[in-house]
Amino acid sequence: MAQYFGFVPSDKLKVLVKEAEQVVAxxxxxxxxxxxxxLTHQTARDLIDNLLVGxxxxxxxxxxxxSMQKIVVTVEKTADTLLNILLGKENNEEVLPSFHxxxxxxxxxxxxxxxxxxxxxxEADGQIINKGFSAITPDHVDVKAFKTALETMNDQTLTHxxxxxxxxxxxGMIKRKSxxxxxxxxxxxxxxxxxxxxxxxxxxxxxxxxxxxxxxIVEKPE
Length: 222
Description:
Mean pLDDT: 90
Structural class: alpha+beta
Strand order of the largest sheet: 2-3-1-4
Largest sheet: 4 strands, antiparallel
Helix content: 55-70%
Number of strands: 4
Number of helices: 8
Low-confidence stretches: none
Shape: globular
Radius of gyration: 18 Å
Strand content: 5-15%
């Protein structure tokens, strides 16, 4: 059995995926890059919504919640800035590798036949994440293991959707160097959110948070 991280795409992302697939399949004499760019931006928004919005919604303290919302806005702006730097006008042949990545390496079919945005986890990372999620139950709470699981999930997601995806883009040296810098900034924002939130959560809230994230991890046959 293999472990995957993945979530059901938003309706907006589903529409953009279908549009892009139709354009590429039809071999129309149109530029592909606007479809690629729109699809990439929406994928980033879906990722942030799924990974961070759950943290904000579970925050019981109003002041802390407002602080968390500011972090989400910062992460969103950082991601948008990165994508605006990396994406832009390219010929169709140069755009196709990005389409192929988003189609073949950034989606999978879950056990219910539903297409999810996500990717296969390494065996080691899957074990860390499952161990951390299993460490939060109504009878027992291990915040350290849970935090490690969330950090591992976030790091692997950023690596896949930023670092690995950037390899499909035709970038010059300066733009290429901006990728790890932006990834580090986004990772810092997500780590700040976890560090602000987890220490203050009662056991009941930690259980709600674990229940929110558990469906993102899918076990399916190889």
